[in-house]
Design brief:
TrbK; membrane
């Protein structure tokens, strides 16, 4: 069995070729373009957090530093509960 031949108009072929050339031109320009320098000289992962007088913020930072071990930490559970209460408000609507 032979497949039917699909004919594509010449105008569509020209448009496709122009679009492909434009895509390659933009990709080439982007590859050769220098990236903007970072906003600060310190990489984001090394930056120290801003000190806060809020003990909840300090507790949240401690729990974040614990990573997966914070899951079983009762102190972190209490801090997360207080954080949820502050964010969502009391269940009574206060």
């Amino acid at each position: 069995m032979r497949w039917p031949r699909i004919t594509v108009p010449v105008g569509a072929r020209i448009i496709a070729a122009v679009m492909a050339a434009a895509i390659f031109a933009v990709a080439g320009w982007h590859a050769g373009h220098k990236a903007a320098p970072p906003l600060s000289g310190v990489p984001v992962g090394i930056m120290t957090p801003v000190r806060s007088s809020d003990p909840l913020a300090a507790g949240l930072a401690r729990c974040e530093a614990l990573g997966l071990r914070a899951d079983g930490d009762a102190g972190c559970a209490a801090i997360w509960a207080e954080s949820r209460r502050r964010f969502l408000g009391d269940a009574k609507g206060h």
